[in-house]
Amino acid sequence: xxxxxxxxxxxxxxxxxxxxxxxxxxxxxxxxxxxxxxxxxxxxxxxxxxxxxxxxxxxxxxxxxxxxxxxxxxxxxxxxxxxxxxxxxxxxxxxxxxxxxxxxxxxxxxxxxxxxxxxxxxxxxxxxxxxxxxxxxxxxxxxxxxxxxxxxxxxxxxxxxxxxxxxxxxxxxxxxxxxxxxxxxxxxxxxxxxxxxxxxxxxxxxxxxxxxxxxxxxxxxxxxxxxxxxxxxxxxxxxxxxxxxxxxxxxxxxxxxxxxxxxxxxxxxxxxxxxxxxxxxxxxxxxx
Length: 288
Fold this sequence. Notes:
By secondary structure, this protein is an alpha/beta fold. It folds into 2 domains: 4-118 and 272-283, Aldehyde Oxidoreductase, domain 3, CATH 3.90.1170; 122-269, TIM Barrel (Alpha-Beta Barrel), CATH 3.20.20. 43% of the residues lie in helices and 19% in strands. The longest helix is centred in the middle third of the chain and has 31 residues, at 94-124.
């Protein structure tokens, strides 16, 4: 779950921005049919099998519009859900429910989609000891939600942003003048508590990274034979991450390799939404 501090400092401003994107002056359609407050209820329904994620964000959308809105969930964060399942009931001012509906569903669908794709990939690695990692290939201004969804889907987070760790990619290496020079510069500049990860594309780069003392060596877009040779070269002297074109179809082909991590941008940049909908909005006559 998103803890209250994280919600306040990070999620709330982003949710409010999304609401402002959808309502610049007023919700004209809602104000046409509901000029005054009227309490009602709506049902959150699942229209596709998957993993549900983003329940606290879904509820928060409505609560930011009106703190008296109540969302009662029938499922827990990270549960597997199925077509036709009743997920929640939203009770409150029907104007609020109508105005917040699309934003709340957008978050829930997107986060559930990421969690569903991640869970499917993580299941393929079960028992291997390899951790499945995400990347920074996220939707702008939605990273906090998408990386959270990866965790709910049984994956792990790589660095959150550029301030979070040292990763020397191909262009950093090119700018520094080589793998060794890049690592030496990182050792000189970065705090000593930071691990240094280096992206390698050839076995020669792997040898140079090992000799320069890299903590983590990424094997980027290598075929299986090249990866096996790289693993022999590293020989336990650094942690190993496989990256590049990592898809659900490819994971079974590399899950038996002696590596520590597999990272996949597809967990976030290519995840389809999980289809859910808010239906059956109707007045509720009892006191709210």
